[in-house]
Amino acid sequence: MQETTISILGAGAWGASLANLALANGHRVRVWSRQGNETLAEVIKDADIILSAISMKGVREVALKIQSLTLPPETIFVTATKGLEPETIYTPSQIWQSCFPNHPVVVLSGPNLSKEIDQSLPAATVVASSVDSAAARVQLAFSSSRFRVYTNPDPVGVELGGTLKNVIAIAAGVCDGLQLGTNAKAALVTRGLTEIIRIGNCWGAKTETFYGLSGLGDLLATCNSALSRNYQVGYQLASGETLTQILAKLPGTAEGVNTCQVLIQLARQQNIVMPITEQVYRLLQSEVTPKQALDELMLRDIKPEYGY
Ligand SMILES: NC(=O)C1=CN([C@@H]2O[C@H](COP(=O)(O)OP(=O)(O)OC[C@H]3O[C@@H](n4cnc5c(N)ncnc54)[C@H](O)[C@@H]3O)[C@@H](O)[C@H]2O)C=CC1
Ligand SMILES: O=C(CO)COP(=O)(O)O
């Protein structure tokens, strides 16, 4: 395998897992974290690939810092963040691309709970870019017998699958916390996918992408695992804890909390009907209890399955 210099930005759960996958494949790996001793300039020097696994709130700040540094023109950016920027409604890849218009940007996203990856359990993911050769290079760099990497030509669709499912994962946690059963969960996840497709198309994402690993695949993983922080937020809300209490003890980032606010803003602007997302939003704002949110969803006007 071609040896590659990979600089990973963010030493949280996901950054650490991806660094280990790259190391196991024999690459030169450097990790930058804002708490670490090495400067950004030192860590990204001569990088073939710069991979960001920073939580959403830090993405633009770090991208702007890198803009002032010198980079080889062929450096590939990879983004593994699952979130949306509130002010612009940009996805992370759109931020990286707008800051580095002459560099290829690749999205890496899939059903990838980091704790399972750390245990060397098998997993698959997707790397997506408008530049095929860049996606192929990242695919080769990360593929192994325990991490199967597919390419895809729809970066924003792949990225939105991972981002939008976090809101539905909060709802799935509530569903399990209230012990609503398997039928309810299946209905929730399936109708959740309908909402994801409806709003995801606003960014120009392809519908078929949402049926793949980075869409349905990640939705299933996150909605069915207690390892998911977003699921945990919902589960603990159903147990009567407040959002502030839950976030104070949550290990790591639950991006769905902020993503939900951004989605509601966009859905209201564009008149997109998102009843599950709306109830998750109201629950996070303490406007409804989990039980009231359930009743609101079940008692909506009856309607055909397809169409608004
Ligand atoms: N943990 C997982 O299983 C997966 C996480 N992701 C996504 O990856 C992203 C990171 O997740 P985790 O590593 O789990 O979160 P984490 O909370 O463990 O780590 C977040 C990292 O971002 C850094 N960071 C936050 N704000 C920053 C700023 N302003 N400047 C510089 N660095 C900053 C933190 O220092 C930390 O290194 C999230 O968007 C998450 O949705 C994606 C797939 C799997
Ligand atoms: O995105 C993830 C798995 O693919 C991780 O989910 P959480 O951020 O909810 O832990």
Account of the protein in words:
This protein is of the alpha/beta class. It folds into 2 domains: 5-153, Rossmann fold, CATH 3.40.50; 156-298, N-(1-d-carboxylethyl)-l-norvaline Dehydrogenase, domain 2, CATH 1.10.1040. The chain is 51% helix and 11% strand. The protein has helices spanning 13-24, 40-44, 59-67, 92-99, 114-118, 132-142, 155-177, 182-200, 207-210, 213-223, 229-238, 243-249, 256-270, 275-284, 290-298; strands spanning 5-9, 28-32, 49-52, 76-79, 105-109, 123-128, 147-152. Strands 2-1-3-4-5-6-7 form a 7-stranded mixed beta sheet, sandwiched between helices. Helix 1 (13-24) links the parallel strand 1 and strand 2 (28-32). Helix 7 (155-177) runs antiparallel to helix 8 (182-200), helix 7 crosses helix 13 (256-270) and helix 14 packs antiparallel against helix 15 (290-298). The longest helix has 23 residues, at 155-177. It is globular, with a radius of gyration of 19 Å. The protein starts with a strand and ends in a 10-residue tail after the last helix. The model has no long low-confidence stretch (mean pLDDT 97). 1,4-dihydronicotinamide adenine dinucleotide (NAI) is lined by residues 10-15, 33-34, 53-58, 61-62, 80-83, 112-114, 252-253, 255. This is Glycerol-3-phosphate dehydrogenase [NAD(P)+]. One of its GO terms (molecular function) is glycerol-3-phosphate dehydrogenase [NAD(P)+] activity. Keywords: Cytoplasm, Lipid biosynthesis, Lipid metabolism, NAD, NADP, Nucleotide-binding, Oxidoreductase, Phospholipid biosynthesis, Phospholipid metabolism. Its main location: cytoplasm. Sn-glycerol 3-phosphate binds at residues 82, 110, 165, 218, 228-230.
